[in-house]
Amino acid sequence: MNAEGKDSKTKMEIERKFLVKKIPFNLEKFKKYEIRQAYLSYPKSEETVRLRQQDDTYYRTIKTKGSIARVEIETKISKEEFEKDWLKKVSGVVSKTRYLIPHGEFTIELDIYKDALSGLITAEVEFESLDKCELYTPPEWFDAEVTKDFRYRNNNLASYGLPNN
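The chain above was modelled as a monomer; its predicted structure follows.
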């Protein structure tokens, strides 16, 4: 199915991303996904094209440039299509466990990275408006905000590895 097929959804993605040094609670009670992803576009491309396996579901996602707000077109694809496109990837692979943690009216997507990115933990929060995004107060266990630090974008992590701070 292509990007305009019935299994596609287009939305304005508004999110902030933070580093996390220490998680102050047990993660076992939260829903989680195992994620493996790579990119079909280079980091400096006008659009980011990502392939993602999330447990047993497969996606191709196109994102426009931007930091806090950008257009995202996500298409559910078959395992066969994923595996065929996976051979065309131009980046390394990002592997991580994602936990969905309720936080007031929001959901924190806590990503614990594996393999070459082991030790990196980030938290992303998506918003339905820029107003809510600007008013958001992160919990105390969040560390530095890296929303506008493109080194922490997954496509850059996949291509260049962990940033040297």
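Residues 112 and 121 are 5 Å apart (CA to CA).
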